[in-house]
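Instructor's aside before we start: the two examples that follow are unrelated to each other. I chose them only because their records fit on one page, so don't look for a connection. First example below.
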Amino acid sequence: MEAFVSFGLCTLLIAFISWYKTKSTNLRTVKGLLLAGKNNGYLIVASSLILTNLSANQFIGENESVYLNNLSVMAWGITSVVAMLLVSEYFLPIYFKGGMITTPDFLAKRYDEDTKRLVSIIFLLSYTVNLLPPVLYGGAVALTGMFHLPSLWGISYWQSIWLLVWLLGLIGSAYTILGGLRAITISDTLLGIGLLLLAIVLPFYGLRYLGKGDLALGLTLLLSKHTSHLNAIGTAQDAVPFSTIFTGMLLVNLYYWGIEQYIVQQTFAARNLKEAQKGMALAALSKLFMPLLINLPGLIAVHLYAGVENTASIFPQVAADTLPNTLLGITTALVFGAAITTYNAGLHGSSTLFVMNLYLPYLEKKHKTPTETQLVRTAKRFELLLSMIAMIAAPFILFVDSGFYTYLQRVAGLFSMPIFTIIVVGFINQKVPPIAAKIGLLFFMVAYFICEYILVLTIHYLHILAILFLLTVFIMIAISFCYPSKNTKAISINLSHSLVVPWKNRHIVNVVLLILMVLIYIIFSPFVLAS
């Protein structure tokens, strides 16, 4: 009972503060609803980036991977620091100078409106298939395991997943539609503080439980037994081989932090480039310490449980067994909030893409001038439609036979890397014509689908993504020699403009972050802890 009470109070407190801080924002305008008034400082930007990135999917999927393999899965978070720093240095100045609201806006300026529309549709397909349903499913799995809801309610596991998916979906929809991006960013900040405390509390109780009441003994056991699970240097047999961090993983992380609409939209809401870059650096620092929060339960589970059948339940099982009831309720509220936050950001990014890149251009083509009220109403209706689709589809992820996290990353590559490729080529080569972008998109998507789902290849999917990236770049540049673009005007960046003045200390901070990243890999390797 204590767990339910603390869960309810924590959830309601965060919702109330978010509402109170949001009521002064005009949500009846597109800028107020979709961009939080473009007035966020670096602390809110950093919190929004981390909490939008952090969802129950990671708690569920990464701990499952740690239990089955080792700490190699932490590469997704640790090495994302490199991508975040590159995005901060090269991507964000272009976005801010161009006054862009969505990342496909760059494609319209660089290629043409048709390319922008095509990429917007691919974005929306990606969110509908591989973002919103998995977020709901991951949250439902976490809540089911932490509260042991099937036995409590006297229903099956399948029925419990259905009920919780719809609960999360309805609450997330209401939160997004009524509060807009400002409410999301405020709740992100509050949840960020809570998760920081959880990063200290969960290891403490987990290790003490492992040591049967003795914290030091629990830590000793963790570091002295099953040490192969402490290894972050993945082999070819692991879910994340070490070699992939230099190929496809780097590209995927660059796409995620620099192009993914629901992530980049958090930086677009910053008041200027300086605040956006500071926020990105602070978020990168938190990514370095995120394994303490995300992956430790999986390591503890290796010592506590043998032969777990439903490995997706590892994280909720550890939390339920080790935390006191009150803290379990708070932890569940934080995981619930993390799932809602990512879901909200996905809905919000989707409605922004639809309204600004598809619906508004359609009306303008019909020589119609919509009011702000019409655009906002359309955005909310579209969010509701997507939410309904996601709530219907999410429970069926239960029947996926591969690891949950690996499944997510493999499917994401079908949508993300083709978009990333044409944007990168657009950055570096001004002669590539719009037709090359369209051919590049089609080639990459078809080739990746064949390689992953039709052919039986032994090469890792991240290496396949890197190979297809290089092939697509070659094809696009080859086309540019035959049909060079007539629009070769580059997007200039005036660094003296007040909104585009970069953060002066960013280079020093970047070097420190990269050194810390290398040290973490050395610590979690056979040279130190995994010996």
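Example two begins here.
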Amino acid sequence: MVPVSDRREFRDLASPEEAHEVVAGLDIDPAPETVPLSDARDRVLAERVDADIDVPGFDRASMDGYAVRARDTFGADEADPVALSVAGEVHAGEEPDVTVESGSVAEISTGAVMPPGADAVVMVERTTETDDGVEIRTSVAPGDNVMLAGADIAAGARALGPGTRITPREIGLLSALGVDEVPVRGRPRVGILSTGDELVRPGNPLDSAAGQIYDVNSYTLAGAVAEAGGDPVMYPHAGDDYAEMERLLHEAADECDLVLSSGSTSASAVDVIYRVIEERGELRLHGVAVKPGKPMLVGTIGDSAYVGLPGYPVSALTIFQTFVAPAVRDAAGRDPPQTATVSGTMAVQERYGEGRRRLMPAGLIEDGTGSLLVYPVDKGSGATTSLVDADGFVDVPPGTDYLAEGETVDVTLFSPAVRPPTLLGMGEDDPLLSRLLDTIDRPRYLPLGSTEGLRRLGNGVPDAAVVAGPTASDHDTADIGGWQREWGLIVGPESDVAGLGDLVDGDYRFVNRDTASGLRRSFDDELDALGDERGVGRAEVIDAIDGYELTTKAHESPARKVLAGDVDAGLGLRATAAKLGLGFVPLGTQPVRVLANPDRRGKASVGALAETLDNLDSLTDGMAGMESQ
């Protein structure tokens, strides 16, 4: 038995290739099952289905016209038609009550049963009704315009084979055969456990002051399991109650083919997992030489397979898709997704100095020619928004120093349904911008701040950058429009802060914006002007503001802290203060400009953005302090 201290240090990290082999060797194959035809879509046939009946089950007319004995029409043409009597008519869904004798015909509808005696159909367009019957102006051969019984599929024929994925097409065929229950491959039941006292299930109240966060992994992994063809089962949140964690691990192992846990990285939690594995199963792998994903556990608990995933959402999803999803798909009989990997070129250089293999989160965007560009998305493993800001990951081999700009890379998509955004924007965070983006089909916007947005636009990554305040650019850009916004100090409704001087001279707690924000630039300029007016430097003015160095990234964050009573004033917009019912001390207005990448000015999405910017008045309605420009 390996000492616990050795286990936690991941002394013998497995290679990614070894990890694939270990996970692929887990037995998670479920038993076949039979499901109603109505529930069979997207399932996989477990065995061959043969036709028990002919389809169609009768000879039927394939068009409207007259059922005839073919020999009665021989020699007929436009110049010399054959006159025949009409013995009756046959409609679809009815059993014929007429027999076609020599010299007679029966009027017939498409899909109707061929009446006795008839062996062909003359289309109605090649006939003429007369007082005595009908004239046939063409000759037909036996079987013309008739679908014979079993022509679609005959009784005894192989209809569908095992392993067939059932789509609406297959459901149509099964329906035609009268099959109401379908033998399908079982979907592996995958139990999902998230641990940690800080986790709260969505829908329940959240106490942020106590450090609580919503449980992201359970729902993310459940969606990924279902997409891979598994049947996800979410178990109650165990918190850090280790007795409860142990009970849930046992319960999930008894009920599921595979158990997934995420997090559980504390020493005590790892001890629980080890104890359960050692008592009822086998530990097959502890730690993988890959980033992210080093703390990965693989083993068995009784008859169930077990995989422990990292706690950060992006890391958990990446490791699941890389190592576990292929095993789930295989157990469910699913083929690998055909669009799981795409190729593109690096938009910028990405340096990487570690020796471990890296699964680099990456985003995708098309350039002006329609070629796919790849850019790194790195907000840190704990950033949940990376789940939607990144489209997949690039597998960077160990020992790679950097990925060069223009280098071709393969991106493994997080989902086969992933599509690159039509528009990629970066820059300032702004409430009017949110409305503007709602008018564009599938945009992606990264609120990195004016300075960073402008820098990345200069590097050629986004389609457009949104820049606020006194921010200059040395790069070639195309200004496609913008607006004015009023900014200042957001304060409580009863605050006695009346200006910037009060903030400097009074005993008030303040929260600022980060240095990449255009608001911060304008605020610092006002502090410089106040210092000049008082004959002191900016440093002295800054030192007098309690909380100047306390910064936030989002435009509403300072106002939220004021609303919560954590601070007395925050840097923000009049529109935000009005929205939250707070007081506002105006300090000025600043322009917000949307700058397009000149090489992508012809993209349809950039054109749509420019068109909306030309008609901003409807979007500014009800937004205090916002004016189109």
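The radius of gyration is 35 Å.
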